[in-house]
Prior knowledge:
Layout: H1 10-31, H2 36-52, H3 54-70, H4 75-81, H5 85-100, E1 108-113, E2 119-126, E3 129-134, H6 139-150, E4 154-158, H7 164-180, E5 188-190, H8 196-203, E6 212-216, H9 219-228, E7 241-245, H10 251-263, E8 272-278, H11 282-295, E9 299-302, H12 304-309, E10 314-315, E11 329-335, H13 338-348, E12 353-357, H14 361-370, E13 375-378, E14 398-399, E15 407-408, E16 415-422
Parallel strand pairs: 3-4, 3-6, 4-5, 7-8, 7-12, 8-11, 9-10, 9-11, 12-13
Antiparallel strand pairs: 1-2, 2-16, 14-15
Helix pairs in contact: 1-8, 2-5, 2-7, 3-7, 5-6, 6-7, 10-11
Amino acid sequence: MKIPQHPEPFDTVCETMNALGARGRAAAATLRNASSESKNRAILAAADALRARTREVLSANAADVAAAQASGLNAAFIDRLSLDAKRVEAVARSLADIAALPDPVGRELARWTRPNGLDIARIATPIGVIGMIYESRPNVTADAGALCLKSGNAVILRGGSECIRSAAAIHAALVDGLEQAGLPADAIQLVRIQDRAAVGVLLAGLNGTIDLIVPRGGKALVKRVQEEARVPVLAHLEGICHVYVHRHADPEMARAIAFNAKMRRTGICGAAETLLIDKAVLHSHGLPILGDLAEAGCEIRGDGAVRAAFPAARPATEEDWRTEYLDAVISVRAVDGVDDAIAHIETYGSHHTESIVTADAGAAERFLAALDSAIVMWNASTQFADGGEFGMGAEIGIGTGKLHARGPVGVEQLTTFKYVVRGTGQIRP
């Protein structure tokens, strides 16, 4: 079963999308001055509405999953798409967590007084209207909607055709929350048009109404957004995350971390895709780890040293080191110490998340300081690369670029700032 494409001509798609932008801009003007109390009330009401609509959400999701299975999509994709009552409740709790966060709008980021008496303050403000383009994760509908609302931004959500039914059911709960709080329903809008032309119009900026585009999905989606967008983009291209087992790692800690980093959920961007093991401990530390992974059904692709120690591993190709599998597959390389591990990550990584497992503080600090990834960890699973786990309530994505926001993008990262200057009649000579 496939979602039908809209038959409207391109001009009609443009008209529909631009109307969303105009309504979003009007809603953003209201949100800019909305009270913390009203925003929190909307988010909490949305959480209650989502719980009340659980049966409706699961029914919609079952239809999405059935269509995805009929299309032959892989198990990792199906896992990202699937909801059950437990996951719906987790989404509702995430909404409540976002409501409990401090309001990021109006924060005084810095303040100083010039010799001429001018009082200057840097104040956090909403970005405006955000376009969110995502693929198979229905929970992104709720997380993105609530995070944008909390930070005073209007958002236009464009989910993939694979999750359109689920997204629509969750969006209805968000609109319920907005209406109960007396905030404009257009603060969180969902694009119903599944024609790819709608994405192109959104990327063009909707007649100047879009201030930021945030893509969340596969490499092809993010690449298209980065190439076609005519407005700023906040994105990560992919999550090629590494776990490095140093020669001074505790064997049982390394075993637990490596397994969790790969296998807890293989389809998330924080899942480890490459395991690096010091040659000195390849047998003592590495073989138990590889055995655990293989026993759990993970395909291991190793270099020559790894295959010599663990013959069940398949040969790793050059492309494997650059691949985000999002599945039960991992590439494994034996390295000559921390500098060799750093060099590998800098060559093949995507600047997402890297973890070192070691009892050697000096080696750990060298690893943490040398790598230019958005998130670097010591003795922790890469699966903690998540806004909720960072205490940020939720995230709209993981930023791996160098500008504006890096790592989990939560409510604070969805603000910009302005300067407020107070004088007493000063004029410039």
